[in-house]
Amino acid sequence: MFDTLILLIKEYAKDGFYTATEKLNDFIANTDDIADVLMQIGTIPESIEHDSTEEKLFSKVSDAVLSRAFRELGLKSRVITERADSADVIAESAIHNYTLVADAKAFRLSRTAKNQKDFKVGALSAWRKDSDFAVLCSPYFQYPRNQSQIYAQARDNNVCLLSWEHLVFLLRNKIKESETINLSKLWGFSNDIARTTVVAEKKKSFMREFDNWLISIVGLPEANFADLLLECIGNTVIRGTRETKYWENEREIILSYSRKQAVEELIKHKKIDEKIRQIDRCVTSSCRDLRQIDRYVRSICRD
Asked: What is the C-alpha separation between 198 and 185, in angstroms, rounded?
């Protein structure tokens, strides 16, 4: 199902961003295998060019997938369309009367070391506004392993560090919020653990504690979650092999270039012609402004 989604992103990108977004949102809303998409959505395929329309559509799709996951958990949820100073998704519990905002994250396997700015924990807390909780959803194995400022920020600001894998676990086990299952206990975990954390350990990872808390809330064996993580590691190995092959093929294509092709590709990659055109536009605009100012000055002098 994930492979189908990537093909649709590439196909719909030709229709323009907004039309493509609507079509992709419709696909996510109606797919029967959302858990398969959840398992893969945290990794951006290398075949999707950086900073392209396709990459922007992939980001929008990850928002739609996260919102769909919340709906599968029994919450009312939608993607937030107003992007300035806003989270990606909002969700509401009709049973336990709370709201949350959430931010979806996906990374490339080729991405170098990430820092706290990549996760935007502090910004997400600010985006909470009147909502009760803030939830960051990122690939499980992309969270820092031992220590990071994001764990201190999550503790200080009550931001839940969720993962796509956690959602897969919940959906596969058909967990839905009910009178007896209150998922607010999950979203508020960072605030709870902050009460027992000494200052010297504020940056320490609490992902294992969070895993155990999630398992206890839904009443499932710990081994079930361990099995899922093993499956996820296997999927990462498969994806890694595929993504590596993509770049190996790209390398072979480049090695087959003639000198002229190689030069043209380098010029295109560095966007030299686009930069020249932009400089020309700025110069033309400045000259137009200069002529207007000159006419204005002359008119003043005549007066």
From this structure: 22
